[in-house]
Amino acid sequence: MISFNAFFSGFSLGLSLILAIGAQNAFVLKQGIKKQHVFLVCAICALSDAALIFAGVSGFGYVVERYPIIKTAALWGGFVFLSIYGPRSLYSAFSASHALTAGGEEAQGAVKTALLTLAFTWLNPHVYLDTVVLLGSVSTKFSERAGLFGAGAMCASFAFFFLLGYGARFLAPLFKKPAAWKIWSFSSASR
């Protein structure tokens, strides 16, 4: 029963952390609605989370605390990226009157999409705090079952990203309305 408790605790905490609307989730949703490189985007997001969760559960949080330059570099990299992306999204949310439709615009190449996905993931300061620091810290409560806790958090990440990416098609009718996309863009840019 303790094994299930560790896994379920990791799954539920991991899911609660990833549910927040942010630039990465908005990008996954947008790609899902457009039906462009959905598997690639979801796989990059989930595998990146899995690597960071593994690092946190394996003790990388301790390394980050010991060498704060790592945390500082991640925070500044994320700050620069989000300082550019955030205002662009806010401007788009308020100035453009566009709807998002499946196949409504020319598809970006797989390489460009992969690079954007990696940027949304690895340059986001919240991802390090959530996966490496917070999940890594909580995993210590499970001592020898910390790996099961981490596996639960990884499963939550895979489930969330693939459900968001492939479930986005059901939200496509909603996002045909420009107001819906404006609200979503504003919400994701403000986090």
TrEMBL record:
Keyword Cell membrane (UniProt): yes
Bilayer topology: Multi-pass membrane protein
Transmembrane segments: 6-27, 39-63, 69-88, 109-128, 148-168
Main location: membrane
Subcellular location field: Cell membrane
Keywords of the record: Cell membrane, Membrane, Transmembrane, Transmembrane helix
One GO cellular component term noted in the UniProt record for this chain: plasma membrane
Annotated coiled-coil segments of the chain: none
Superkingdom in the source lineage: Bacteria
Pfam families for this protein: LysE
Gene Ontology molecular-function annotations: amino acid transmembrane transporter activity
Record protein name field: Lysine efflux permease
Organism expressing this protein natively: Campylobacter showae CC57C
